[in-house]
Design goal:
Length: 374
């Protein structure tokens, strides 16, 4: 009962903070969008190159991502230099986040121009801004999310009365957990109560709480699922790949602020070109990519993974430039069913123009927007 009370209080506080934050930033975004003046922070007067073509390159690109294996595209693109090389004279500024809702609050509030984020968080921001704030412009990762639990928990029914963690309320793994629980006849209320108590918290805290016996499991992205298994003795109850046709679903996508995209399409195209190069290197030299990502995890989070952990984490997910658009409506339906998203028209959420142009330039086929572009 103490654990449930703690979880309920924490979840309620988190929910109040997130709602208040989103209301504030959405209002600010709407006001900024209505202002016909120049914001001054991310735009510059168009310049012409030697051929007379007008450039729409931004002086700076502010990019958010996580120190996670499921964000290997961003981790590599920044550390290995593909992003900076493709962006040219545009300054790249980065910020690390723990989970998507906080990152999307920053995007809506004008602190970020682009972000690597899970689909559920992107959908929430899209819905909150009435389809105005952002566009999904590329994929990044598929797979790499699991529900890991204490030994002895073998079925969904065994979770009744237990406490499970997620990275943040409303993030992609939080939606996946709540949806799966509901499909299995278990309640998980927004205030942290129900048949199963859900306690959104920082991933590092989740590992410590599990080791201390305060929670019974968590739905987590990589490398945290692997750390729970290999460091804390958790077992996999659900591999999210098993819940999707062909095991294909978007874990991480690249989103951009819609105003930034409109003002600086050349910069967005350059970022996507950098991503394609980064993913190509990850795929071609997996061992080197694993080492680089592990080195960056140590620098960004203070702790590197063991060789076994980084190998397992990489094996659970794969990089992709395809946003797997067909899976987005299902993600939205899951969020609606979990009570975390109002039913939303998703048309306009994708703009894959730059991605498909860059894929064509690399001799690769175009990817589908599942009819969800404008």
């Amino acid at each position: 009962m103490i654990r449930k009370a703690f979880s309920a209080a924490a979840a309620t506080a988190a929910a109040v903070w997130m709602v208040a934050s989103l209301v504030i930033v959405v209002a600010a975004y709407a006001a900024a969008s209505d202002d016909s003046g120049d914001s001054g922070s991310s735009s510059a007067a168009p310049a012409s190159d030697t051929t007379g073509t007008v450039s729409t390159a931004a002086p700076e690109l502010r990019l958010g991502y996580f120190a996670n294996v499921t964000h290997a595209t961003a981790v590599v693109g920044v550390a290995h230099g593909e992003f900076a090389s493709a962006l040219g004279t545009t300054k790249l500024t980065t910020q690390i986040y723990n989970a998507g809702p906080a990152e999307m609050t920053a995007l809506l509030g004008g602190q970020l121009d682009a972000a690597y984020v899970g689909p559920s968080s992107a959908l929430a921001a899209f819905a909150q801004s009435h389809g105005q704030a952002l566009r999904i412009v590329a994929g990044a990762t598929t797979g790499g999310a699991e529900l890991v639990v204490r030994p002895g928990i073998a079925t969904a029914a065994d979770l009744k009365g237990k406490v499970l963690a997620t990275p943040q309320k409303g993030n992609t793994q939080d939606v996946a957990l709540r949806s799966w629980l509901k499909q299995n006849g278990l309640t998980a209320n927004g205030d942290g109560t129900g048949d199963v108590s859900v306690a959104p918290q920082d991933n590092a805290a989740t590992l410590d709480q599990f080791k201390a016996g305060h929670i019974d499991g968590a739905w987590l992205p990589e490398p945290w699922a692997s750390r729970m298994v290999l460091e804390a003795g958790a077992k996999v109850l659900v591999d999210e790949k098993d819940l999707w046709p062909g095991g294909q679903f978007a874990t991480t996508n690249l989103v951009v602020n819609a105003d930034f995209l409109a003002k600086h399409p050349d910069t967005v195209k350059a970022l996507i070109a950098g991503q394609i190069a980064a993913n190509r290197w990850i795929t071609a030299d997996g061992a080197a990519a694993q080492q680089l990502v592990n080195d960056q995890l140590k620098q960004l989070s203070g702790k590197a993974l063991s060789p076994t952990e980084i190998q397992r984490a990489f094996g659970e997910q794969a990089v992709t430039d395809d946003p797997l658009a067909a899976s987005l409506q299902t993600s939205a339906d899951h969020a609606v069913a979990a009570g975390l998203l109002k039913k939303t028209d998703l048309h306009g959420v994708f703009d894959l123009t730059a991605l498909n142009a860059e894929l064509a330039a690399n001799g690769r086929p175009a990817v589908s927007d599942a009819g969800l572009s404008k």
